[in-house]
Write a structure and sequence with these properties.
Blueprint (H helix, E strand, L loop, with lengths): L1 E3 L2 E3 L1 E5 L3 H10 L5 E6 L3 E3 L4 H5 L9 E3 H4 L1 H5 L3 E5 L2 E5 L4 E4 L4 E3 L2 E4 L3 E3 L17 H19 L5 H6 L1 E5 L3 H17 L13 E5 L11 H14 L1 E4 L3 E6 L2 E6 L2 E6 L2 E4 L3 E3 L2 H9 L9 E2 L5 E2 L2 E6 L4 E2 L1 E2 L7 E2 L4 H19 L13 E7 L2 E8 L3 E6 L1 H14 L3 H17 L31
Parallel strand pairs: 3-4, 3-11, 4-7, 11-23, 13-14, 13-19, 14-15, 21-24
Antiparallel strand pairs: 1-2, 5-6, 8-9, 9-10, 12-20, 16-17, 17-18, 22-23, 25-26, 27-28, 28-29
Helix pairs in contact: 1-10
């Protein structure tokens, strides 16, 4: 407890400034509590648009905002502390969280919203060759690799080496993989033509590899089929029932009905697996909480931990169920609207406990799902009261996707800048965030004497 004048205020620690953590802080800012928010970065990231940074459509600041600015109104109340730090341990007996420098922070109530990271299904050695897309650093690295691939293809003579640089493999056909593949095809076919002398970017191959039977497996089969058709129209080659078995610097292997297939590709992006934050395992070790197969913490109906109601887990780290009034409990998807709702519920339950009231079970309100594929291409599934679930695709779904993402972006400036960039890109196909800072000196393996034009430094 912390004394404020003559009043002793409960201390609440929130780990993570993603969607769930921010919503929890916003609710708690109206309660008589002291709140400490801890995150390893100084910004909130609008992750649904991260692929646009990775493909040069948006600059990094357009989809992120300094967390101290985002929560400036809550800071003015005088009971919110924001710390930049990495939580490495949680001690539920002492009610401490431990930072990487050994500092301990006491709490009366704890909200863990640490999110998720990449899962390579036990093959972490694939990570250097096929980066994932979870952070701003990931987005900038993927953008660097995609843009440099065209640059190095320009230096190669026609042949296998050039073909490998112009082959892009996206592994995993969920929303992120579909959005990446569609946008990369647009870059090759519409943005970069006429910008290179020795290569035609329209000859680039974008291959979407999925281990399951169809793309967007979480969507109904009819929308999945429409998405596959729209990807094909954009020039993306979709390979389903293809399970990756090996990845190296020069390409990958996957298992299919025809056996093992080798694909030579110098640019590979991982969008296939998600694993919970390592804090999930720490919570399991310290509290006896159960984990699901993805490492997410199995929570109680009120989002607390069994035996430790003072600890709540929300967002991608929580294996939660939605408890409807007249429906059986159902799993909550790992999407940003769910994280927001969990953050608000966990914070409201903390306030109820402080007041001596019983906490409420979490109920997820599902508004539907969206996935964009490319210019004027998207699929949408929206729940509308009375009318039920509406499913649509194509141009209308794409416009709806644009509106939703602009609406949920944090900050008027970000909304304005993103809208302006998208409008310009729509009419011109231009992507002005195609900038690589301090590129790595990757030298193609073809001997200089065999390259078109001889010495690549000439001219």
């Amino acid at each position: 407890m912390i004394e404020a004048g003559s009043t002793v205020l409960p201390r609440v620690v929130v780990i993570g400034c993603g969607f769930g953590g921010i919503e929890a802080v916003r609710v708690l800012s109206h309660a008589p509590v002291e709140v400490t928010l801890i995150d390893r970065t100084n910004h909130h990231l609008f992750q649904p648009l991260l692929y646009q940074v990775a493909t040069g459509g948006l600059a990094a600041p357009s989809i992120s905002a300094p967390i101290r600015h985002v929560l400036r109104r809550q800071m003015r109340a005088g009971r919110l502390t924001i710390l930049l730090g990495d939580v490495v341990d949680i001690d539920p007996d002492r009610r401490d969280v431990v930072l990487e420098d050994g500092e301990r922070l006491r709490y009366d109530h704890l909200v863990v919203a640490a999110g998720a990271t990449h899962s390579y299904f036990g093959h972490d050695e694939w990570m250097p060759h096929a980066p994932g897309l979870k952070t701003l650093a990931d987005g900038i690295e993927v953008r660097r690799r995609v843009l440099l691939a065209f640059e190095f293809a320009e230096r190669e003579p026609p042949g296998p080496a050039r073909d490998a640089w112009l082959t892009f493999a996206v592994i995993g056909a969920g929303p992120t993989g579909v959005e990446l593949a569609g946008t990369m095809a647009e870059i090759a076919h519409h943005t970069l033509p006429q910008e290179f002398r020795r290569i035609d970017s329209r000859h680039a191959k974008v291959i979407l590899i999925e281990g399951g039977p169809r793309v967007l497996a979480a969507f109904p089969e009819d929308l999945s089929a429409r998405a596959a058709a729209q990807l094909s129209a954009l020039g993306v080659e979709v390979r389903t029932q293809a399970k990756v078995s090996a990845i190296d610097r020069d390409g990958l292997c996957y298992e299919s009905a025809q056996g093992t297939v080798r694909l030579d590709a110098r640019t590979m992006i991982w969008a296939a697996g998600v694993a919970a934050s390592p804090l999930g395992r720490i919570l399991a070790d310290r509290t006896g909480a159960r984990l699901d197969r993805a490492g997410r913490v199995v929570v109680e109906p009120d989002l607390g931990l069994a035996g430790h109601p003072e600890i709540s887990v929300v967002g991608d780290l929580a294996a939660a169920l939605s408890h409807g009034h007249h429906t059986p409990p159902r799993p909550v998807p790992a999407v940003s609207p769910a994280a927001k709702q969990m953050g608000r519920t966990a914070a409201a339950n903390i306030v109820r406990r402080i007041r001596g009231e019983a906490p409420q079970s979490f109920r997820y309100i599902d508004y539907g799902a969206l996935a964009t594929i490319g210019r004027k291409s998207a699929v949408a599934m929206v729940d509308v009261p009375v009318l039920g679930t509406l499913k649509f695709s194509g141009h209308l779904a794409w416009l709806f996707w644009l509106f939703v993402h602009i609406f949920f972006l944090i900050g008027f400036r970000n909304r304005f800048v993103v809208l302006l960039d998208w409008a310009w890109a729509y009419w011109t196909f231009a992507r002005f965030a195609r900038v690589v800072g301090a590129p790595e000196r990757l030298v193609p393996r073809t001997p200089p004497s065999e390259r078109v034009g001889g010495d690549p430094r000439s001219g």
